[in-house]
Amino acid sequence: MRLIVGEGSCGLAAGAGAVHTRLQELLAEANPTGVELGITGCNGMCFLEPIVDLYDDEGALHRLVKVQAKDADKIYQAATTGDLSLVDGLRISAEDAEFLDKQTRIALRDCGIIDPESIDDYLAHGGYQAITKILAEGMSQENVIHEIDVAGLRGRGGAGFPTAFKWRAARDAKADETGQKYLICNADEGDPGAFMDRAVIEGDPHSLIEGMLIGAYCIGASEGIVYVRAEYPLAIIRLRKAIEDATARGYLGDNILGSDFSCTLRIKAGAGAFVCGEETALIESLEGKRGMPRLKPPFPAQAGYWLKPSNINNVETYANVAWIIVNGGAAYAAMGTENSRGTKVFALSGKIRRGGLVEVPMGTTLREVIFDIGGGIRNGKEFKAVQLGGPSGGCVPASKLDTIIDYAELSATGAIMGSGGMVVMDESTCMVGMARFFLDFTAKERMLEILSRVVDGKGEEGDIEKLEELCYAIKDGALCGLGQTAPNPVLTTIRYFRDEFEAHIAEHRCPAGECRELITYYIDQDKCVGCTACARQCPVQAISGERKSPHKIDPTLCIKCGNCKTACRFGAVQVR
Amino acid sequence: MSKQKPSDLSLIEPVLDSYAEVPGSLIAILQETQAAYGYLPMDAMEYIAKRTGTPIATIVGVATFYAQFRLEPVGKYLIMLCQGTACHVNGSELISAAISDELGIHDGETTPDGLFSLEHVACLGCCSLSPVMMINGTTYSSLTPDKAKKVLRSLAAESAEGGASA
Q1: CATH of domain A343-506
Q2: Omega cis (within 30) before A298
C-alpha cells in the first residue's frame, strides 16, 4: 500500500502537513511492512484539500478527500489491515471525481501524480525522454522548432505570441564575441487569480527544466534563469532541489548526456512588483534594477538580459514542450481550434463550487469549464460574471458564457485569454467595486479617484464617460503591454454592467449590496427568532430587542461591519 | 540622521563576499540583508553602497520599488493579507477589518508591543481557498472574520507562553 499526501501550497494551507506528520508518527511507531508514505503536488482539486491518495497492492487508486489529522489513524488502520471499508467515509464522491475526468492534461500531466522531489519518479513517468531523443538523434535546432511550430504552441503567459517565432528570432539573433545567449523563464505569476505556474513548479519542476533545456538548445543558450516570485517559497525550494538533482544526473551542466550541448540553470527570486511580469521589466529586475519596462524595439531576442539575445517564455508554455517533442507537434495541434491549438490551464476560483486547476482543450466553452467542471455557483446563487486574464483582462457576463476558449474569441468579448485566471462572481459581487479593485491593483491615480467616489455614492453625471475617455487615453499612451491592457477590467465592466454604474450614480444604490456607503443592514422580522447572536457580535451595540422576539438594527449607530450577517444562522440579517 | 540604533554590519559581510563577483546582484543582496535584520536599516544600505560602489540613491531606489522590502522593523508575526481578485470576491475586506479591529493596526503598521505587523500583499496564489493570509510562512485559508481573530489570539498566546518559559 502507498499513501500519497497532496502537498502543494493549497493542500498545505488546508492542513495536509498535519495529516502527513500524524501518518509519519504512526508509521514510525509500528514500522509496518508494505506501507509507504509519500508526497505529490497539487492535482488541481483545491476544493477537496487535503487529499490523500491510497494505492492498494494492485495499484488501484482510492482517493480520500477533506482529510484532517484526526482521520490519519483510520487511514493508517486501513492501509495496514487492508480493510478499506474503514475509510469509506472519506472517499471522493462520483460527482466530484468528474472534475478530473472531464479534463485533458498535458502541462499538468504529472501534477498530483508524481513526487515532485524525486527525479526518479519523473524519469519513471517518461521524464527527460524528449531531451534524450533530441540529443541522441542529433535533431537540428530547426527540426525541434519545426515541431513546436506544427504544434501551434502560443505563449501561455498572456500575450499568446507564437513560441516557434520567438525561438527562431532568438536563434537567428547574432550574439557578440562572447557568443552568450540567455533563456529565461517568467515565473513571476503576478495576475491575481492565476496559480497554475505555481502548481507546475511545486508539482512537476522537472517538466519545466526539460522544457527550458529544449528551448535553450533551440536558441543556442548556455544559461537559463527562472525568475520566481517571492510569494512562492515552496516553489523555490522544490525547483532548487530539482535543479540540483538534474545537474547531478547529467541533465544540466557541461556536455549534457554526452553531447556537445551544455546548459546551466539558476533561480532568481523576485521581490514583489506586479510589473515584473512584463518581459522587459523582468529583465531589468534580473539585472538588479528597478523593474521599469524598456522601450521596444529592440526586443529581448535582439538585446535582452545584459543586452544579449534572450528568449522569455512562461512556465506553462515550457511545461508543454517536452510532451510535444515526445508525441509530435501534430498530436498537440489536433486539439483546439484553428488559431488556438492544444490545451490551456485555468485557475477557477471565486464563488465557484469546485475551485481549482482545470486543463481543457482550446475550443471548450466558458460554460463547460465553469458549470460542467467547476459545478457552477456555490450556495445556489446566480452566476453574474467571470473575470478572465487578471488586471489586463475583463469581466465576461452570463450572456457570453457560450464563448469558446480561443485567443481571438475571448479578445472579442473585451477580455483576454491572459494567463488563465477565472474568478467567478455571483449576484452579491458589485461590478463597480470590481472595477475599482483592479485599478487599485494597476494604478492609484485619477480613474481610481472617480471610481472611489462612485462606490461611495458621490458619483456625478458624466463620470462613466470620463472613465471611458481616460481608458482610451491610457491604451494609446502606454509604454508596455501591461499599460495598454490595464483599462480592460474597467472598460468591460462598463460595457456589460453599465446599469450598475448608473444605479450607483443616479440612485445612490448598490444593486449587489456590497458597497458599504450605499447599503443598509436590516433584520427581516419574519425570519428573526430572537436568538441574540447578532446583538452579541455587534461591536457598537446597534442591535436591540428582547430574547425570543425579533431584533432591530439602529441605522444611525450601525457601522456596516457585517458581523451580524455572518453571525445569523437564519438568514434574517439582510442588506438593501 | 536615523533614530535607529547602529546595525551590526558584520552580518552582511558574508553576503557581500558571496555576491562580489556576480553582476546584477543588488536585489539578492538586499533580500539577504533583510533576512538578517528583518528589514533594511539605513546604515546597512549605506554600507552596501560603500562596499559595492553603487550610489546610495540606486540602492534606496530599488529598495522602495519592490513591495517585499521594508525600511522599518516589523513585528514578530508578519501578517500578509492577500488582496488578490478571488480573495476580494470572497470578502477579504471583512478580514482586513477584523484584523484591524482585533489589533488596532492597518496596512503597513505594527502593534506597539512589536508582536504583529499587517501588510496587504498581491495574490498569494491560493485562490481556491480564499480569503487567505500568510503569517511567517504558514498559510491560513478559507478565513472568516472570526477565524482570523482566533488565529491571531492563538499566536499571541503562543508568544506569551514562549516568553514565560524562556
Answers
A1: 3.10.20.600
A2: yes
* CATH ID of B77-165, from 3.20.20.80, 3.30.70.60, 3.30.70.120, 3.40.30.10: 3.40.30.10
In one-letter notation, the amino acid at residue A252 is: L
The verdict on a CB contact (< 8 Å) between B28 and A231 is no
In sequence order, the β-bridge partners of residue A2 are A36, A55
**Tens digits of per-residue pLDDT, A26-68?**
999 988 888 999 999 999 999 999 999 999 999 999 999 999 9
Q: How far apart are CA A477 and CA A487, in angstroms?
A: 12
The separation between CA A39 and the C-alpha centre of its own chain, rounded to angstroms, equals 21
* CATH for the stretch A119-332: 3.40.50.11540
| pLDDT mean over B60-71 | 93
Cα dihedral sign, A226-A227-A231-A233: positive
B89 to A191: CB separation less than 8 angstroms, yes or no: no
So what's the pLDDT on residue B1?
A: 42
- Does domain A520-575 fall under CATH 3.30.70.20? My reply is yes
Which one of B88, B125, B141 has the shortest CB-CB distance to A195?
B125
For residue A560, is pLDDT > 90? no
Radius of gyration of chain B from Cα atoms? 18
In a mutational test of the B interface, the residue from A423, A493, A540, A563 whose CB has the highest number of chain B CBs within 10 Å is: A423
User: Tell me, what amino acid is at A439?
Assistant: L
How many Å lie between the alpha carbon of B84 and the closest alpha carbon of chain A?
5
Return the domain boundaries, chain A: 2-101, 119-332, 343-506, 520-575
Better-scored residue on pLDDT, A283 or A493? A283
Task: Show the cell assigned to B65.
Answer: 520599488
The per-residue pLDDT for range A511-524, each reduced to its tens digit, is 888 888 888 899 99
Binning pLDDT at 50, 70 and 90, where does residue A172 land?
very high
Cell of A420: 488563465
Three-class SS of residue A384? strand
Q: How far is CA B90 from CA A351, A352, A449, B83, B128, in A?
A: 7, 10, 24, 11, 10
Does residue A447 surpass a pLDDT of 70? no
Average pLDDT over residues B85-97: 92
| Cα diameter, chain A | 86
| CATH class of residue range A2-101 | alpha beta
What is the pLDDT averaged over residues A352-378? 97
Strands A182-187 and A310-314: what pairing?
Answer: parallel
Q: What ranges do the domains of chain B cover?
A: 9-65, 77-165
How many CA atoms are closer than 13 Å to the CA of A494, on its beta-carbon side? 19
Chain B touched by A46 (CB under 8 Å)? yes
Residues 6+ apart with CB under 8 A from A476: none
Q: Give Cα separations from A38 to A31, A112, B152 (angstroms).
A: 15, 12, 32
H or E element: which one contains A575?
strand A573-575
Report whether A42 contacts A112 (CB < 8 A): yes
Going by C-alpha positions, the residue among A293, A277, A287 that lies closest to residue A307 is A287
Q: Does A187 touch chain B (CB under 8 A)?
A: no
Pairing, β A552-553 against β A543-544? antiparallel
How large is the average pLDDT for residues A460-478? 83
A297 preceded by cis ω (within 30°)? yes
Distance in angstroms (rounded) separating the CA atoms of residues A421 and A346: 6
Q: How far is A229 from chain B (nearest CA, A)?
A: 10
- Alpha-carbon torsion A246, A167, A318, A107, what sign? negative
Cell of B27: 536585489
d(CA B91, CA B125): 16
ipTM of the complex: 0.90
